[in-house]
């Protein structure tokens, strides 16, 4: 999993400023990786799950914690 190493300094209630939600290999290596890099370079504490979840698979505890601990979610749709 890629995520910035420190917790959000903007608000101690949040673990991350942004959670990036996406599905598919087509976005993982292209758009999403560029979005993650841009947000991280701007100093925005961003969580990006680097593991592929299969349809119907349960969220792991770390991923569930990251979702609930993020101030904003960016959902990326691809076709």
From TrEMBL:
InterPro entries tied to this protein: TIR_dom (IPR000157), Toll_tir_struct_dom_sf (IPR035897)
Annotated TIR domain residues: 14-79
Coiled-coil intervals, chain numbering: none
Pfam family, one: TIR
Record GO biological process: signal transduction
Keywords, in A-Z order: NAD
Protein name: NBS-containing resistance-like protein
């Amino acid at each position: 999993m890629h995520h910035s190493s420190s917790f959000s300094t903007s608000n101690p209630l949040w673990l991350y400023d942004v959670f990036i939600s996406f599905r598919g290999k087509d976005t993982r290596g292209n758009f999403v990786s560029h979005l993650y890099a841009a947000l991280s370079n701007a100093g925005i504490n961003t969580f990006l799950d680097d593991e592929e979840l299969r349809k119907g698979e349960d969220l792991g505890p770390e991923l569930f914690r990251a979702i609930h601990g993020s101030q904003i979610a960016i959902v990326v749709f691809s076709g």
